[in-house]
Design brief:
It is built from five helices and ten strands; from the N terminus they run E-E-E-E-H-E-H-H-E-H-E-E-E-E-H. By secondary structure, it is of the alpha+beta class. The strands form four sheets. Strands 3-2-1-6 form a four-stranded mixed sheet. Helix 4 (119-128) packs across helix 5 (166-174).
């Protein structure tokens, strides 16, 4: 990157846990930075989005003009497919290059870089920053929050300004019920 052109980076939050064989890219945010104007734009694509148009190239011969599955499974579908996207399959680079290509095609951007964190990485980043302060608009009561061993547990986060650790921020970000 030359420091003057627009910079596009794919931020990936993966649902990858120790001992788990799945690896879904549940959070995909493209950050577009214009150094000249000092403006930053972020685009988030919901993980359950289907029928995302594929860029021209070999992947279209395999999948057709669109990827019919949920977009959060695309990485897993192409991660070892260096016949579809460039990169070392041992390092899963076809998956990352495929995500950059499909989202770049969707948004009309050249996405050159990516950063990925899993749950542990998210917690560590927040804790390293000393936590995060979040204005919780409505209280969160989730009686079906995923816990260890496929069990569920209850979490409660009151409304108002909350200073959260990495673990608490991850619960807040992942809660879907209540």
């Amino acid at each position: 990157w030359n420091g003057t052109d627009r910079l596009n980076i794919l931020l990936i939050g993966s649902d990858q846990r120790a001992g788990d064989v799945t690896h879904n890219t549940d959070t995909m945010i493209v950050v577009s930075i214009d150094p000249a104007s000092k403006h930053v734009v972020m685009f988030s694509l919901p993980r359950d989005t289907v029928d995302v148009p594929l860029p021209p190239g070999p992947a279209r011969r395999v999948y057709g003009s669109v990827y019919r599955g949920k977009i959060n499974s695309f990485w897993s579908s192409v991660r070892k497919r260096d016949d579809l996207f460039p990169g070392d399959p041992k390092r899963n680079l076809p998956g990352y290059n495929g995500l950059k290509a499909i989202l770049g095609n969707l948004y009309g951007l050249d996405i050159r870089y990516f950063v990925e964190v899993n749950f542990d990485g998210f917690r560590q980043i927040v804790d390293t920053m000393g936590g995060v302060t979040i204005n919780v608009q409505m209280p969160v009561t989730d009686d079906r929050f995923p816990s260890t061993g496929n069990s569920l547990r209850r979490i409660y986060i009151p409304s108002g300004i909350q200073h959260m650790t990495g673990a608490a921020a991850l619960q807040y970000a992942r809660s879907r019920h209540g």
